[in-house]
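Bug #77: duplicate submission created two jobs. Keeping one. Sequence:
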Amino acid sequence: MQVDIILPTYNSARFLDAQIESIVGQRHQDWCLYIRDDGSSDQTCTLIADWASRDHRIHCLKTTNGHLGLSLGLRELLAATTSPWVFFADHDDVWLDNKLARMLAVAMEKGVLNSMSFPVLLHSDLVVVDANLDIIAPSLWRFLGIERQSNHIFSLLRRNRVTGCAAMINRCLVDLLLSTLHEKLVHDWWIAQLASLEGRIVSLPEQLVLYRQHDANQIGAVPAGLAKLPVLLNAARLSAYRLSLFSALGHLKSVSHSGRAVAMIRPVLFWEIIKRQTLYNILGFFEWLSTQ
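Kept job's structure:
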């Protein structure tokens, strides 16, 4: 079965070769890789052109709309795909060589490989590594304390457990994303919400990606526990969280087949915002107190 892989780039020259090498080295070789650069100022575009000239399966999308940001750039990449299944890739990670084969095999085992009438998301665990690929944590799920988290919509609204670069989605979910994804949404969190509400999520507790942590990560892995609350609850993150939740509620109302489900979800959203705002205010108070 042919699958598509989408890879957004932006000033990605430092790590891009390693990621593409790991895709080219996959045991499952029937794939097409679509890359869109979002206006890099380094050597990223030169590297992409070189890879595309050497492998006919690698395609570089022409950038006609300038700098779009991650979510809108992903939407353009998704629109270019044609295969039944689409995989997400980050420019700075490395895939284990059995990633494609293993995830397709699990989709077959779970009876969803040929399911195109409802949204399906399959995602795996990851190995957390540093910039040099030395292991920080053998399991991202345990590192974040989410190994036992449910895929129910209520649980996912509280905290996302789906990492985009470890996910594959079917054509039905691609079509939903093309009509709903916009710049205010954290894309992998939104994908998980859609799949949970409208279709099915399959979680694979195997590590198939080396999830690289470095000084330029957009989100990255933050360990569980109170020690990291000041990082998790800073003003920028809190504002982004509120925006994403309100955007999610509006979109869920437009795409959900169940008004009752949306009515049940609304208080969960507001309760989560209140909790985070309260914690942020408490942290702010103690930070102010320490300066007195």
